[in-house]
Write a structure and sequence with these properties.
This protein has 10 helices and 15 strands. It is an alpha/beta fold. Helix 10 links the parallel strand 14 and strand 15. The N and C termini lie far apart (about 45 Å). This is DeoR/GlpR transcriptional regulator.
Length: about 250
């Protein structure tokens, strides 16, 4: 089998099965594990998959910058944002991550809601500014322009002084084995710190993030109290996500 054919087979298998085990594929094709690992390495360099120990997982399609992500699954994100906004109760302290789905949560909050929102996203803070009854606490740090969020030690230090009821965590990869992940190490550090300061963590995940993985792990799936997925998510995907030990609910 030619290299190009083998690589296409790998991508097709990832699409249909959700993972590749290098040894099993090498045995099936009658080639060496080194050959399969080289194929995986080259495909990973092209951003077409995420290598893991022993094989590969689908790469998240949600790793573009904020402007790119605004065009992806926009209707799903509106529904997820509406659902997330409905989880917030008056008087709560809520940590709202950065990203396009978090912005939808901000846009769907009731105008008369009285709550405190903590965020490290300037965009989220601006979106909330019209809500006169919401106290907004912005965690400052170095602006990571790719995602338009503040990152760094100062964000983590400020977060250590917060106790929140809910944290709406953004993740580019949501996988039962690979966990909750994102494409930047500093972002992962900040998300992990914010998760540790909340009684409950909710992940609002559009379809391109499901059963995929990114380079930097935030936490295992079971760290989330709830993963909310689009209404049209296939039953087999929901079952696979639940195998990670987390409650999964579809957005209405």
């Amino acid at each position: 089998m030619l290299t190009a054919q083998r690589k296409q087979l790998i991508l097709n298998r990832l699409a249909s099965h959700g993972q590749i085990v290098a040894k099993d594929l090498a045995d099936e094709l009658g080639t060496s594990e080194d050959t399969i690992r080289r194929d995986l390495r080259e495909l990973a360099q092209q951003g077409k998959l995420q290598r893991v120990h022993g094989g590969a997982l689908p790469a998240s399609a949600a790793v573009g910058d904020l402007q790119v992500r605004e065009q992806v699954s926009s209707q799903e994100k509106q529904a997820l944002g509406r659902f997330g906004a409905g989880l917030i109760q008056p008087g709560q302290v809520v940590i709202l991550d950065g990203g396009t789905t978090a912005l939808q949560v901000a846009h769907h909050l009731p105008a008369d809601l009285r709550a405190t929102v903590v965020t490290h996203s300037p965009n989220v803070a601006v979106a909330l500014a019209a809500h006169r009854h919401i106290d907004i606490l912005v965690l400052g740090g170095r602006l990571f322009r790719h995602s338009m969020v503040n990152v760094g030690a100062s964000v983590i230090e400020a977060a250590s002084r917060v106790r929140a009821d809910l944290f709406f965590m953004g993740a580019t990869g949501v996988h039962p084995k690979a966990g909750l992940s994102t494409g930047d190490a500093e972002e992962a550090d900040v998300k992990r710190a914010l998760h540790e300061r909340a009684a409950e963590t909710v992940v609002l995940a559009s379809s391109e993030k499901l059963l995929s993985a990114s380079a930097f792990v935030i936490a295992p799936m079971k760290a989330a109290s709830l993963v909310v997925v689009p209404a049209g998510t296939p039953a087999k995907t929901v079952t696979a996500l639940r195998s990670g030990g987390v409650k999964v609910q579809k957005a209405a």
